[in-house]
Automatic annotation (TrEMBL):
It is found in: Cytoplasm. Its EC number is 2.5.1.19. Gene3D superfamilies: Enolpyruvate transferase domain (3.65.10.10). It catalyses: 3-phosphoshikimate + phosphoenolpyruvate = 5-O-(1-carboxyvinyl)-3-phosphoshikimate + phosphate. This is 3-phosphoshikimate 1-carboxyvinyltransferase. Coiled coil: none annotated. InterPro entries: Enolpyruvate_Tfrase_dom, Enolpyruvate_Tfrase_sf, EPSP_synthase, EPSP_synthase_CS, RNA3'P_cycl/enolpyr_Trfase_a/b. It holds the Pfam family EPSP_synthase. Residues 14-433 form the Enolpyruvate transferase domain. The keyword Lyase does not apply. Catalyzes the transfer of the enolpyruvyl moiety of phosphoenolpyruvate (PEP) to the 5-hydroxyl of shikimate-3-phosphate (S3P) to produce enolpyruvyl shikimate-3-phosphate and inorganic phosphate.
Length: 451
């Protein structure tokens, strides 16, 4: 389902210090994958802590359309009765994936090696995003594709009777591409191999192993990873507990660092090494940031992240860190705006093909609020504040992280900051406003200042 309600402008104002211990919703990447692997297993998978956001609900709807039975009980426990690998049914209608790039790319991987036809579309943001990066390996496996020029949604795919297993070197560091090929490989006879020169988040590999797939991960001499899945086995249902999303935790963490007097703890945050680039960068910037209560659950590391207001300093963020913080650059730019000196982010060209062109959207939002910055082809340079900031209205371009980023800016700015549509936040973080209210932050509908 597409986000179709009228735009809902929100305004953030500085005020009291942010104080408290909060929990952000479940990880979006793991939530999508839990529903998908559950749909491919035979038997009942349970999922607790599922992120109940628009993007993930679109995956639930898609997996139902492919034949899985998916339900939520009154306590928020989700059950998935899988259709089974190789047994997906042909969807009766177009699958509208709304804003969800991860969802649609992984679902195309799953459907692409089943002998069924499926048509996918999305909202005004998703139809602009490149799908060729997933369609190219699928075509090599025998999937037929009918698409608009440039391989954009809406598009239809038809999987072959006998898919060809492939060995595929991912041309861009993308966990979505890697995952789409591995999921396609699940229903191809023999071994499908993905070579990723630059490692990206590894939730698909970990969860496939957990669901009993035959999967092997090797390392090549250049630090890359070689992942091989053996197709046409059976997946065993699992009980999945979804940890809190580090990409959502990033917002209260940065807010706690830039709002004077704050002390914020975000509990139970996923600390997978491919997701912690922002925490590393903030520590290099001089953040008072402590990770405690580190433990392992369901094969993933979790911990509590505690921050206190800190005077940050500008740093250079190396290009090879990008995959481990790819969704966190917008909010890092806000931390950089409050730092002494300049922060330079290298190797961030993938930001141009996210829910919006995030390089352009971040730069425009910063400038609208009086912060100097320069964007290059693959770089973003942000100069720490030199005078009063805020007072601007930011265009979100249907991008949830742009909306949340600039509301965080407003919580510490000299003048209020407005985003033109806060409704888009529901795609990944439906409790965002309530969580900031709990911490004492002032975010309200534009024109309705909180009492
Ligand atoms: C995701 C991978 C990343 C990330 C997205 C979630 C995933 O995209 O930006 O929000 O769950 O695999 P890319 O793989 O395109 O970098």
């Amino acid at each position: 389902m597409s986000h179709s309600t009228a735009a809902r402008p929100l305004t953030a104002r500085s005020g009291a210090a942010l104080k408290g211990r909060v929990t952000v919703p479940g990880d979006k990447s793991i939530s999508h994958r839990a529903l998908m692997l559950g749909a491919l297993a035979i038997g009942r998978t349970t999922v607790s802590g599922l992120l109940e956001s628009e993007d993930v609900l679109n995956t639930a709807a898609a997996m139902r359309a492919f034949g899985a039975r998916i339900q939520r009980d009154a306590n928020g426990l989700w059950t998935v009765d899988g259709a089974g690998l190789g047994s997906l049914v042909e969807p009766e209608t177009v699958i509208d994936y709304g804003n969800a790039g991860t969802g649609v790319r992984l679902a195309m991987g799953i459907a692409g090696t089943h002998p069924i036809a499926a048509t996918f579309t999305g909202d005004a943001s998703l139809v602009k995003r490149p799908m060729g990066r997933v369609l190219e390996p699928l075509r090599m496996m025998g999937t037929r594709v009918i698409s608009r020029s440039g391989d954009r949604l809406p598009l239809s795919i038809h999987g072959p009777g006998t898919p060809a297993p492939i060995s595929y070197r991912v041309p861009v560091p993308s966990a979505q591409v890697k995952s789409a090929v591995l999921l396609a490989g699940l229903n191809a006879p023999g071994q499908t191999t993905v070579i990723e020169p630059i490692p990206t988040r590894d939730h698909t590999e970990r969860m496939l192993a957990g669901f009993g797939a035959t999967i092997q991960v090797d390392h090549d001499d250049n630090g890359g990873r070689v992942i091989t899945v053996t197709g046409q086995g059976e997946l065993q249902p699992q009980d999945v507990t979804v940890p809190a999303d580090p990409s959502s935790a990033a917002f209260p963490i940065v807010a706690g660092l830039i709002v004077p007097g704050s002390e914020v703890t975000v509990a139970d945050v996923l600390l997978n090494e491919h997701r912690t680039g922002l925490l590393t960068t903030l520590q290099e910037m001089g953040a008072d940031l402590e990770i405690t209560n580190i433990r392992e659950t369901g094969g993933e590391r979790l911990g509590d992240v505690r921050v206190r207001h800190s005077q940050l300093r500008g740093v250079e963020v190396p290009a090879d860190r990008a995959p481990s913080m790819i969704d966190e650059y917008p909010v890092l730019a806000v931390a950089a705006a409050f730092a002494h000196g300049t922060t330079t982010m290298l190797g961030v060209e993938e930001l141009k093909v996210k829910e919006s062109d995030r390089l352009a959207a971040v730069a425009a939002g910063l400038r609208a609020n009086g912060i100097e910055c320069e964007e290059g082809e693959s770089t973003l340079r942000v100069h720490g504040r030199k005078g009063p900031i805020g007072g601007g209205t930011v265009t979100t371009h249907l991008d949830h992280r742009i909306a949340m980023t600039f509301l965080v800016l407003g919580l510490a700015a000299d003048r209020p900051v407005t985003v033109d549509d806060g409704g888009v936040i529901a795609t990944s973080f439906p409790t965002f406003e309530a969580l900031f209210a709990e911490l004492g932050g002032d975010i309200s509908e534009t024109g309705e200042q909180a009492a």
